[in-house]
Design goal:
By secondary structure, this protein is mostly beta strands. It has a domain of 66 residues: OB fold (Dihydrolipoamide Acetyltransferase, E2P) (Beta Barrel). It is elongated and about 75 Å long. It starts with a strand and ends with a strand.
């Protein structure tokens, strides 16, 4: 069977087109050809396999099967939707393309389980939300920055995700081996199973753990582990204060988001010191309302959670 990805799909009208892996010719897709009725909604980028016949107006897909990962199949068995219903798109999405491959979810894999509306904690973080998890104030949106969301007419969707969300979702997609730096110098090796507003569900050595995001100082991919760990320096004065997770009633470190944006645009280096004294230096890859991704001086990459920042300075 041929394989490809969904190039366009209109759920209301029940048809779309598949971009083939082996050909530039698009294939017409009708909802009646999808073999998995339990898969409620297709989205641009979803991987599929199918057979092809020649129709009156061109190629037509038959026996279309959505390519699901083991985690997606588990979600379906639990009655969860793989893609949030009513979701309006990703930041930077245009005609099925993403402006940043690192932040965009990979085609053909899971995004997130359908949340239980009776439990707000299970919803994804909207980039334009007025809520302030992680003790962060909501920064002013800049359309040139990672956290800026797309506009639908004159109305902004409340279901659009920040680049920090998209980064985590991509790691779910690829089942990426990662490390999560927790307080008390814990470096937890894990893959991400699910993400909610305030928690991460991790698989660490076969054990499922629910970790509050406020417990995470920073994270990085396993492939970068040696270089990230080698790049970390320690501010002994900060470490001596023995600071832990910031309490909900305490103001987090005031971060000059505009200065971070300016540094990103100009390729300037910044230095971030965390509450347990770790020091990172590098250039900004992207900044979201809740995280900053740095490319360190040795080329490795680390995502720092803003609630864990003690001090930030721009060179």
């Amino acid at each position: 069977m041929a394989t490809g990805r969904i190039k366009y799909y209109n759920f209301d009208k029940g048809f779309g087109f598949i971009a083939q892996d082996s050909s530039d010719a698009d294939v017409f897709l009708h909802s009646s050809a999808i073999k998995q009725p339990e898969y409620e909604e297709l989205r641009v980028g979803q991987r599929v396999k199918y057979s092809v016949i020649e129709g009156e107006k061109g190629l037509v897909a038959q026996n279309v099967e959505v390519l699901l990962t083991p985690t997606e199949r588990r979600w379906l068995r639990q009655g969860k939707a793989i893609i949030p219903r009513g979701y309006a798109g990703f930041p930077g999405q245009n005609q099925g393309q993403f402006m940043n491959d690192e932040a965009a979810p990979a085609p053909g894999h899971k995004v997130a389980p359908k949340h239980d509306r009776s439990h707000p904690d299970n919803s994804l973080i909207p980039s334009d939300s007025t809520s302030k998890p992680h003790n962060q104030s909501t920064p002013t949106k800049d359309p040139n920055d990672a956290e800026a969301s797309t506009q639908t007419g004159n109305e902004q969707s409340s279901k659009q995700l920040s680049f920090g969300d998209l980064y985590i979702l991509k790691q779910i997609n690829f089942e990426t081996s990662m490390f999560f730096a927790l307080y008390d110098t814990v470096q937890l090796p894990a893959t991400v199973l699910e993400m909610t507003l305030s928690n991460l569900t991790l698989n660490s050595n076969g054990r499922e753990q629910h970790i509050p995001k406020t417990d995470v100082k920073y994270c990085y991919k396993d492939v970068d582990a040696e270089r990230v760990q080698a790049a970390v320096e320690i501010d002994e004065d900060v470490k001596a204060q023995q600071l832990k997770q910031i309490p909900a009633d305490v103001q987090a470190c005031e971060i000059d988001t505009e200065a971070v944006r300016h540094a990103r645009k100009n390729g300037a280096s910044i230095q971030i010191t965390l509450r347990e004294g770790e020091i990172f230096r590098g250039t900004v890859d992207w900044v979201s309302p809740y995280e900053i991704k740095l490319i360190l001086e040795n080329g490795s990459k680390v995502v720092i959670f803003r609630h864990a920042v003690y001090n930030l300075s721009v060179d």
